[in-house]
Design a protein that fits this description.
The chain is of the alpha+beta class. The chain is 30% helix and 29% strand. The strands form three sheets. Strands 2-1-6-5-9-8-7-11 form an eight-stranded mixed sheet. α1 links the parallel β5 and β6. α5 crosses α9 and α8 runs antiparallel to α9. The longest helix is centred in the last third of the chain and has 22 residues.
Length: 307
């Protein structure tokens, strides 16, 4: 993958002109109208998209005509995912948006070219690390790999009295979710007794290892050995009570015993933590609701406005 052109414009909504090189700073492309303290600091468009549109328009489209800062070759950019990263020399960019709103005839690009491919196939990034980019530079693509640690707490299962089924079921649910969205995903499963010290140690290890999501299963009841919530809750930087309250109420309408669960959700650093009950049925019920909002939670965590 390589860079074919670097382009700049002094006004938004206008065609960009190729330049010998662009300087990337903490706000985006130096001297470009779109630089600033927001999530769309650098725009990119693949020549693959430009050539496809050129055939439809029956004319040559020049680099920068769709207002992209960087014209690339070798990767279908719009098939990548938010939070994926690109490295070009010393520069590192993080994908924050795919496509954008088309302003139609109020846009100079639309009026001059007759249409615009950026709303569908252009991508936008924010700067992780700055530097200089020029045509001919090599580009490397690093998909975001979501990492999960699933911890089952059960005295009996840890003694081998029965097999852990709820932990592997969480992994299955997560795999299905990430496969559906085309994301890369890795999971580690750990089975321990209902032991506060072990759980604290595993959480600490997960945070150090850059784990994105911690799921626990078991220990959310009111028994003497149900310590999961008591260990996790003081560690939270922020609690997310709504999702667990909703799940308890939704399933508690028909099964009042579900209301007894002390399940919690929260954030420690940049890691989401969900404490689920210990049954396979409960795991499925909780995952059904949590996975509906998981992608949005990550966007919020990383400060990406997707409204």
């Amino acid at each position: 993958m390589k860079i074919l052109s670097t382009n700049i414009s002094s006004k938004k909504g206008t065609i960009k002109k190729p330049v010998d090189e662009i300087i990337i700073n903490e706000l985006g492309v130096e001297n470009d109208a779109h630089s600033g303290n927001w999530h769309r600091q650098v725009s990119m468009l693949g020549v693959e998209s430009i050539e496809k549109f050129s055939k439809e328009a029956k004319r040559k489209i020049n680099y920068g005509e769709f207002a992209e800062n960087i014209t690339t070759e070798g990767l279908v950019l719009y098939k990548s995912h938010i939070l994926d990263r690109f490295k070009i020399g010393n520069v590192e960019l993080e994908l924050t948006q795919i496509g954008k709103e088309c302003h139609g005839t109020s846009c100079a690009i639309f009026n001059e070219v007759g249409n615009c491919v950026m709303p569908k196939e252009g991508i936008f990034c924010r700067v992780i690390k700055g530097g200089t980019i020029k045509a001919g530079d090599e580009m490397f693509y690093y998909p975001k790999i979501f990492k999960a640690h699933i911890i089952t707490l059960s005295d009996r299962a840890s003694r081998g009295e029965y097999a852990d089924r709820s932990g592997p079921r969480i992994t299955e649910n997560l795999e299905a979710h990430f496969n559906k969205t085309g994301r890369q995903f890795e999971a580690v499963n750990t089975l321990i007794s209902d032991d506060a010290e072990q759980l604290t140690s595993l959480v600490s290890y997960s945070l150090q290892d850059g784990i994105d999501i911690i799921f626990t299963t078991g220990g959310t009841g009111i028994g003497q050995r149900d310590i999961t919530v008591d260990v996790l809750k003081p560690l939270f930087d922020k609690e997310i009570p709504g999702i667990m309250d909703f799940i308890r109420m939704k399933y508690g309408v028909e099964k009042p015993n579900a209301l007894i669960s002390r399940s919690v959700a929260g954030i420690i650093g940049n890691t989401f933590v969900f404490a689920l009950p210990g049954s396979v049925k409960a795991v499925d019920e909780y995952c059904t609701e949590i996975l509906k909002v998981l992608d949005h939670l990550f966007l919020m965590m990383y400060g990406i406005d997707a409204h």
